[in-house]
Amino acid sequence: MQIRFATSLKEYPKLTTEELRQSFLIDELFAPDVVRAVYWETDRAVIGSAVPLTKPLKLETFPELASETFCERREVGVLNLGGAGRVEVDGAAHVLDRLAALYLSRGSRDVVFTSENPADPARFYFVSYPAHAVFPITLVPRTQAREVRLGSRADANERTIYQCIHEEGARSCQLVMGFTKLDVGSVWNTLPPHTHLRRSEVYLYFDLPEDAAVFHLMGSKDETRHLVLRSGQAVLSPAWSIHSGCGTQAYSFVWAMGGENQRFTDMDGIAVRDLK
Question: How many domains, the chain?
């Protein structure tokens, strides 16, 4: 498990591009037959992946968590970005087709990831936050996610938001999770931008061709910077930072948040004219 310590708004302006990438970019997540994870000091988040190819993969705990099992004091949101797969939780199997989500509750003990077809393996992406209560383990097929349409063609940001783990869907302690798909011809996401001091956020971009990229915008409204992200890469967004982006073509991204407020609309908007 890698560890990423929090970076403050005071330090941020002094960082080079490479230092920004080292602090906020997760560029090597998905690997065959291994569980990878990054521990982020902000809100004690864990971001990880599992790609079971030739064998099932168990979600073991890590020494840094000082726990008997991974979910001893944590909840987890899982989203499958690949072929069909199964997540067995304490002996109960949950089938996740592409873009299905699964909420794992605090106290879940044995969690095992498996691909239904090794020739088209599942690509499980997960985000975890500490949990103080137990909510039911819940499977959210893609067809049951709440769909919200936003944006306009004139602003090149027509998109559909799919809410999976949220207050009126799969319940959780503090985790909110889903994904967004941009329409063909649209390239901007989360515009106008915003911040939310009451929670941190993690973006993972996917469904991008190898020769495409997203220019992810971050920082304060008075000193914006960007990171170039490829498909399958994630970016950490602290509470003080905007999180917006523009791609070389349409793309999708997973968003996951944790903190003291679960309302999807809890945000502090920033007008484009105020950005620098």
Answer: 1
Query: What is the residue range of 177's domain?
Result: 2-274
**258 three-class SS:** strand
The CATH number linked to 65 is 2.60.120.10
Question: The dihedral of CA 276, 274, 236, 23: what is its sign?
Answer: positive
Pairing of strands 25-26, 234-237: antiparallel
Q: For residue 171, what are its two tokens?
A: 């319940």
pLDDT tens figures, 48-89: 999 999 999 999 999 999 999 999 999 999 999 999 999 999
pLDDT tens digits, 155-211: 999 999 999 999 989 999 999 999 999 999 999 999 899 998 899 999 999 999 999
d(CA 36, CA 101): 19
Residue 67 tokens read as 């726990």
Q: Quick one: CA torsion of 197, 26, 166, 137, rounded to 10 degrees?
A: -140
CB atoms within 10 A of CB 38: 19
By DSSP bridging, strand 124-130 and strand 74-80 are antiparallel
Closest CA to 232 of 212, 218, 217: 212
Instruction: Give the single-character DSSP code of 32.
Output: B
Long-range interactions of 117-122: CB distance < 8 A, separation 24+: 117/83, 117/84, 118/53, 118/54, 120/82, 120/83, 120/84, 121/32, 121/51, 121/52, 121/53, 121/82, 121/83, 121/85, 122/51, 122/52, 122/80, 122/82, 122/83, 122/84, 122/85, 122/86, 122/96
Say how many C-beta atoms besides its own lie within 10 A of residue 216's C-beta.
26
Contact assessment for residue 158 and residue 188, using Cβ atoms and an 8 Å cutoff: no
Which pTM value belongs to this model? Answer: 0.96
